[in-house]
Design a protein that fits this description.
304 residues; alpha+beta; 3-stranded antiparallel sheet; 11 strands; 41% helix
């Protein structure tokens, strides 16, 4: 495919961010592009694929136009808008293949998909909430100049009365989640067994809210390996991960640095200065070293 002069190229991550979709759906559309109309890849760099932005935007605009010519079935519009739906029922209403898209939206695009109306026994949405979202959703993704409003999580200290009851926002903040939807998604999927049963239910305002003791939340953090304090080595030296370590030591990438470390070529760094869990307990804990230690090793290697 020829590229027009100055044409903007986008990879999968950029398409996901701008057009509010998922990597799996992009792969499906591209695989079936003969029927879906998704554009061909412009070029690849390793495993990364790049497309011309204008062609991708035209694809989503066409989908939006097609979607806007249809209306929700009368059976959906006439049903009780207050009826609570499970993630599986929401998935069926939206025509998705499985609930993974809903969970992905909640985890990775906070503020895009509506938060559940209730979370007492798993996540539940009122039918009217989903219908309103479908009818107001433009379908063209999030373009430059548009914003999603995400309510910030409160600042919560691990220090305090261990028996104090904390709600969903406070629990999400203590456990390192980026938003209450991502916390609720993880809770619904059974990733936080310590919090499966709330220790309190506050129905003030007509909407039940879960609560847990601070000690219970900290127990979940401990199991996940999440540090709830900002600990740093003596002297306050900055901690750096594999990517920064690779740059200081002259490796081409974090992968090559980790490979050398795994093969025993960096015995000076076998014991890290800290091991930090990723937010929400997702992914492997990351090894970190002080900048001073890395720079000292780099100086020794260059002088040898």
């Amino acid at each position: 495919m020829s590229q027009a002069a100055g044409a903007r190229l986008v990879d999968t991550a950029a398409i996901v961010e701008e057009f509010a979709t998922t990597p799996s759906r992009i792969s499906e559309w591209h695989r079936d592009r003969a029927t879906t109309g998704f554009p061909d890849v412009h070029h690849t760099e390793g495993r990364k694929r790049f497309w011309e932005h204008d062609l991708v935007a035209a694809f989503f605009a066409a989908k939006a136009d097609s979607r806007n010519t249809r209306t929700l079935p009368a059976s959906v519009l006439e049903a009780d808008p207050g009826e609570l739906l499970t993630a599986a029922e929401v998935t069926a209403l939206l025509g998705y293949k499985n609930a993974s898209s809903v969970y992905w939206y909640l985890r990775n695009l906070p503020g895009y998909f509506p938060e559940p109306d209730e979370t007492i026994d798993g996540m539940r949405w009122r039918r009217g909430t989903i219908v309103a979202w479908v009818q107001s959703r433009p379908g063209k993704g999030r373009h430059a100049g548009s914003t999603r409003t995400v309510k910030p999580l409160p600042k919560v200290s691990a220090a305090g009365d261990p028996d104090e009851l904390l709600g969903v926002p406070e629990a999400a903040a203590l456990l390192g989640f980026s938003s209450t939807p991502s916390f609720s998604s993880s809770l619904s999927q059974g990733n936080l067994p310590e919090l499966a049963e709330p220790e309190s239910l506050d129905v003030a305002g007509g909407r039940p809210r879960k609560g847990w003791r601070r000690a219970t939340i900290l127990a979940a953090a401990s199991r996940l390996g999440i540090s709830t304090t900002k600990r740093r080595p003596a002297g306050g030296s900055e901690l750096l991960g594999a990517e920064e370590a690779a740059t200081i030591l002259g490796y081409s990438s974090a992968a090559s640095f980790n490979g050398a470390l795994f093969r025993g070529r960096l015995p000076e760094l076998e014991e890290p200065d800290a091991v930090e869990a990723q937010p929400g307990g997702r992914g492997k804990p990351q090894k970190k070293w002080t900048r001073k230690r890395l720079e000292k090793l780099a100086a020794a290697r260059s002088g040898s």
